[in-house]
Structures are given as C-alpha cells and as structure tokens.
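Predict both folds.
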Amino acid sequence: MISPDLLRILVCPETHAPLVLTKEGHLLSTNRESRRLYRVEDGIPNLLIDESQVLGEEEYDRMMAEAKQAAGHAK
C-alpha cells in the first residue's frame, strides 16, 4: 500500500501529472492523453515509463472514476 504522504509527491515521470491510486493498488496518471498505469509490486511503485501500461480510453475513464470515488470515500 502506498502511504498518503508518498502519493502526494509522486508524479508521472513522463508528464509530471499527479498520480492516483487505483482500486487494484496501482498508480494511474491523471494525464488523460498519456493514460499511463504504473504497477505497484510488493508495495514498491515501478515508475519506469517503458514498463508502464497505456490504457485504452474507456478503461482509463473507468479506472479514473473508480479512483476518484474511492478517494472521496477516504476523506
């Protein structure tokens, strides 16, 4: 799990956009043009651009909506 303090300072290495935590526990760039998903394995974020996944628009929108909803419930 990524701590809230760490999440506040992490950014997408490609676009420098903030990252949000997905319900699966991975990191998603808030930059819709890049739609990059960064895996978190054993609590360690892998922020290598070459190892990230570019999501399709529908999948990105769904995951972003879920992440925003989860963040709203956490407050």
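Second protein follows, with its predicted structure tokens after the sequence.
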Amino acid sequence: MNYKRIISVLLILMLTLSMVACNNDVANNQADETAETTESTDTQYTEQVELEEKVVIYSTHGEAMLELVADEFTKATGVEVEFINLKGELADRVRAEKENPQSDVMFGGSSAVFMELQEEDLFEAYAPSWNDKVDELFKDKDNFWIGTIQTPVMICYNTDVITEEDAPKDWADLTNPALEGQLVFRNALSSSARATYSSLLQQFEANDDLENGWAYLSALDGNTKQYYSSGSMMFQAIGRQEAGVTFATLNSIVDNKVNNNIPLEIVNAESGSPIITDGIAMIKNAKNPNAAKAFIDFAGSAEMQAMLANEFNRMPTNKDAFASSPEWMAEIVIAPMNVDWAALAITSSEWMQQWDTEVKDANKDAE
C-alpha cells in the first residue's frame, strides 16, 4: 500500500475543506456587513445624533394618515410625535409663531405655500437622506422644502351620467354650454381648488390674455351647479347623479371609484393637469431640530411613501417607492400642465380673492 500517496490525498482534502470553510466565513461576514449597512441606512435618523424626546408637526394631512406616520416614526425612533391638523390655517399659524416657533416640522400643503413661507424666512434648509431620489420639479433647489407626495388634479366624470362622446377632453371643454348644470367643484377654501383655478388663469396670463382668463372662469362658474367645502359631499353629489363632471385630486378620484363604487372615468387633459407637490420642511429655530430632521428623513423614505401609496393612494415623489406602490401609479402617464408655481405663490391669493368676490356665484355655495 502506498501510504505516502494516501497521506498526500488526505492533506489535499483537508486543505480544500479548509479553503471552503474560509470562503463561507468570508461570504457570511460580507452578508452580515451588508445587512448591517442596510440596517444602518434604514435607521440612520436614529444613529447619527441623539434625538429629542418629541417632535411637533403642523400639517394639512388627514388624521388617519398623520396617525400612521406618527406611529411608525415612534416605533422606529422612540420619539413621541405631537401633531396638529391645521388645514387652511397652517400657513398663518406658522407665520404667527415666527419669533417663537411651537412646531418643528411643516408637513403638507402645496409647493406654492412653501415658497411663500420660504420667502418669509420661516424654514431651515435641510437635505434629507432621500433628496437625490426626488425630481427637481418636486423640491426647492436650496433644500428649504421637498415634496413627499405628488398630487395631480384631474377632470373626471360619472359614466352613468355623461357619455364618453359628450365628456370633456380638456379644461376648455368645461365651458361647453352642453355641460351647463353638470359641474360641481370644491370652493377656493380647498388648496387643490385654489391651485387649479389659479393654474388655469395663469395659462391665459402666459399668453398676455388675462382678460379672457377671467372670462373663462366666469363661463366655468356659469356651468357650475354647486360648490362644496367638503370633498366627500362633492363626490356624493356625483355618486347620486346630481351632476356628472368634476375635478379633484387623483387620489380622491381613485378612492371614490374603488371604495365608493362611483363609476368615474379620469380625463387626462390634452393641455395637461396641474400637479401639486405636497411638501415638508423644517421650521427655522425649531425646539427639537434633531428629531425634526429625523422625521423628515422618515416621512419621505421609500418605505413610508410606499405605505402611504398603498393605504391612502398618495403618489410618491421618491422614485424608489414606486416598486412597492400600487401598479397604476407607475403605469399612469400624466401630462403636466405648464405651471410656474413660484409665480403662483405671489399671485394666487389675490386672484382667488377676486374669483371669490367677483366671479363665483355665492348662491351656489353648499351649506
């Protein structure tokens, strides 16, 4: 028997097994490091600095959505969230507290409102961890605010009331005499309605034709049956077939189509649809600055935006969130209306006051 050969073979086998074990250890170590890196990325807002015990949020978002974000943030960080839903009073409240801020973060409201308040030096610049995942259209170039939700405002109609042939194809069609009494809209207390009326008027201004812009809004009012302060009341009227056409935020249209079984058809307007950016910003001289930055990191993360997309049909601005969002959000192609939101931040309030006092028929306001 050749013992030397047997010993050589055994030594080779032992060496091979040793190398395999080493390679496995390296692979496992790399996997562990990758997991640690991923975990660190997901929880960087808790590891970078020591966070304060609470963060105060002023918002325009609904209670259910705020509670979800707040609860998830507290689970992730241990930081208590105090939020106040201020709706149309949000901007005025932030202004009033400029010298002694009582909030840390402004969460919600259109980009035009954020631009207004930015000019008044009410925000602290901060670029969140997801900043590079957001298109330039949805954020401030100097990082004073950034969008967490993109909100297209689109025309829709009840297919049991309006046929496809008679349905409007664009915003100009809403003044067609054939649609008289078939339109119901939100009043200008709604931020989406303010943005839409102002955006439509701006299209005429861009062509040095503002006079015809006001004539268009007057004709639109002539076809309007009712104005509502509540979106739910407006859609109830559409569902009861009291009118056939409206415009609303895309998420509201989808909600009412899916959850309330209203046979709604969405119109991708030929001239484009206004796309409102719901933003978030850190209040200047916030009392809880570290927790404020952590909340902004969290609220706009792909995971949180995808959660809001699935729970509330809110379309993300973070590109990474679409992979886990409802399929229709990634599939729908919306033609954006050419809107100068910075200019609207200056003119919108004056225009809407004129619309409210000189154009809108106050007798059409719903109680």
